[in-house]
From TrEMBL:
Species assigned in the record: [Candida] railenensis
Entry keyword set: Metal-binding, NAD, Oxidoreductase, Zinc
Protein name as annotated: alcohol dehydrogenase
SMART domains for this protein: PKS_ER
This protein's GO CC annotations: cytoplasm
Cofactors: Zn(2+)
PROSITE patterns: ADH_ZINC
């Protein structure tokens, strides 16, 4: 297999600065790394946060973003085991971790203090050739449609893990705030596949049709409802058993604490810049509400999430465009206009 020395990528030099589609060098894998020919990459709202510099963790600069990369292994470092040239591999948010600390030892690898993050501290999947730690790279079954599996690598894994964190039983209600977006559209389907009943919250009629087509039983339009909390409590006979917050809205998170029924769990996933969650202590105690953060997933969560997809239980509703069109996707995302996920084809 011949590997070129240069490739197309989208790079930015400063947070919020120009997103340049240009030729850069193909990276060389370190001894522990795979070199993956990225065919497709999903575009996650995290990529937009990273570009804007929204969070209290600095990005690498200049940076190639992207962390939902699906491609083919074309080279590997001398210490890599368990991979062959030609295998399908996925680039996840967690590019690598130390594997030695307390958190790594207990399989909480995303929480490792030395975590290396694709499209954040490590050049990611908005390029044709990217490197990934061979231990953390996702194994994708041969023959899988690489465009459609791409969103599973962050959005799918994250919502699957968040649903597990809510500790629900089959037949219980789960609210998904931000249900029409990339994470939300997959969360509806994982929730259904796990046996839960879904209340979807998002804005506008088109998103309402969309989330119902994916299996949501109830849709609440946050742009129209005058009483989101009351509406959800009524539709679910007293509130949902679990709430997964994948919107980029502080107000939506606060509402979720109120519409979750007693003894239920509020899961925080979406990361609006500078947001805080507000819960009355008396209410949280007397109603025994659990508020839990959930951050991507570990290797087992990744394999399980891919397995749900491979068994045909999860349909990724994607729009495929060329990598050079990334800036226009960020504009649509900022405006909340995306149904499901955009996936970029790195060859265009
Ligand atoms: O591991 C993690 N915790 C993790 C992993 C991946 C992504 C966290 N995230 C974070 C992202 O950084 C981002 O903050 O999850 C958030 C959602 O990512 P996404 O699904 O990729 O974003 P999107 O496709 O833009 O969808 C967001 C949806 O929220 C809706 C929008 O209309 C859109 O459909 N929304 C908004 I903005 N405000 C809302 C509100 N008040 C709302 N929906 C309901 N109520
Ligand atoms: Zn992501
Ligand atoms: Zn560690």
């Amino acid at each position: 297999m011949s590997i070129p020395t240069t490739q197309h990528a989208v790079v930015f030099e400063t947070n919020g600065g120009p997103l340049e589609y240009k030729q850069i060098a193909v990276p060389t894998p370190k001894p522990n790394e795979l070199l993956i020919n990225v065919k497709y990459s999903g575009v996650c709202h995290t990529d937009l946060h990273a570009w804007k510099g929204d969070w209290p963790l600095p990005t690498k600069l200049p940076l190639v973003g992207g962390h939902e990369g699906a491609g083919v292994v074309v080279a590997m470092g001398s210490n890599v085991q368990g991979w062959e040239i030609g295998d399908y591999a996925g680039i996840k948010w967690l590019n690598g971790s130390c594997m030695n600390c307390d958190f790594c030892e207990r399989t909480f690898e995303p929480n490792c203090e030395k975590a290396d993050l694709s499209g954040y501290t490590h050049d990611g999947s908005f390029q044709q050739y990217a490197t990934a730690d061979a231990v953390q790279a996702a194994k994708i079954p041969k023959g899988t449609d690489l465009a459609h599996v791409a969103p599973i690598l962050c959005a799918g894994v994250t919502v699957y893990k968040a649903l597990k964190t809510a500790k629900l039983s089959a037949g219980q209600w789960v609210a998904l705030s931000g249900a029409g977006g990339g994470l939300g559209s997959l969360a509806i389907q994982y929730a259904k596949a796990m046996g839960y009943r879904v209340v979807a919250i998002d804005g506008g009629e088109e998103k309402g049709e969309f989330v119902k087509s994916l299996g949501a039983e109830v849709y609440v339009d946050f742009t129209k409802s005058k009483d989101i909390v009351g509406e959800i409590r009524k539709a679910t006979g007293g509130g949902v058993h679990g709430a997964i917050n994948v919107s980029v809205s502080e107000a939506a998170i606060d509402q979720s604490v109120q519409y979750t029924r007693s003894c239920g769990t509020v899961v925080l996933v979406g990361l609006p810049a500078g947001a805080k969650v507000t819960a009355g202590v008396f209410d949280a105690v007397v109603r025994s509400i659990t508020i839990a953060g959930s951050y991507v997933g570990n290797r087992a969560d990744t394999s399980e999430a891919i397995d749900f997809f491979a068994r045909g239980l999860i349909q990724c509703r994607i729009k495929v465009v060329g990598l050079s069109e990334l800036p226009s996707i960020y504009t649509l995302m900022e405006e909340g206009k995306i149904l499901g996920r955009y996936v970029v084809d790195t060859s265009k």
